[in-house]
Amino acid sequence: MTVEIVVYNIESALKAQEGGADRIELCENPGEGGTTPSYGTIELVRQNLSIDVFVMIRPRGGDFAYSNYEFHAMKRDISQCQKLSVDGVVFGILNPDGTIDKKRCKELIDKARPLKVTCHRAFDMARDPFEALEDCIEVGFDRILTAGQQTQALKGADLIAELIKKANGRIAIMPGSGVNENTVEEIVKKTGAKEIHFSATTFKASPMQYRNEAIAGMGSDEGAEFKLRVVDPERVKKTRALAESVKSLTV
């Protein structure tokens, strides 16, 4: 079982490795579903981790139909990731009609090589999952991260299982979203997945002693600036163990 942990800061990357993750997906902005992290963050994470580091290439939150300016920013970000010696990049581009933008995805994939390339959950916003599957294979993605076009992978488990069957080893299909200690056994059992993606999130208190109560949340959730999002290595270990216990029974 391959375990990928999505992380949003340097401490979480270190905790994911401590918990036994095989690789991380490094992002920023969890509230927007993940965007491209800073080069400083990428560099420090790469220098301090021995496991694989995949970097999100997403210039903004929202949809996955990008302007020419945004597309060029994605190409620049991939170039920087190559210079920083990461192992892979993660992106997805859609046409306004809900199909995979094969032309621009292929251009980014070709540019990214020899890095590994994952199509993220833009796949879940595609109009036809089986059409999108074949398009992803055609342009050269190595894997697809999906919740089966649902909000959570358990809800989309039947579709994920179909995708894995139709892929037939041509591309990896990795369930993600809502994968945790309570759901991973059922997800793996239903889908037969060999890779899983999850966050193993916990929160710790900020060390700040002085707190300006007049500006709670800095415009976001109240008090959010005094809660720090990190990965819980024990949750990583537990979820992996549960996933592997299911796989061992199906071998």
Automatic annotation (TrEMBL):
<keyword id="KW-0963">Cytoplasm</keyword>
<protein>
    <recommendedName>
        <fullName>PF03932 family protein CutC</fullName>
    </recommendedName>
</protein>
<dbReference type="InterPro" id="IPR005627">
    <property type="entry name" value="CutC-like"/>
</dbReference>
<dbReference type="InterPro" id="IPR036822">
    <property type="entry name" value="CutC-like_dom_sf"/>
</dbReference>
<dbReference type="Pfam" id="PF03932">
    <property type="entry name" value="CutC"/>
</dbReference>
<comment type="similarity">
    <text>Belongs to the CutC family.</text>
</comment>
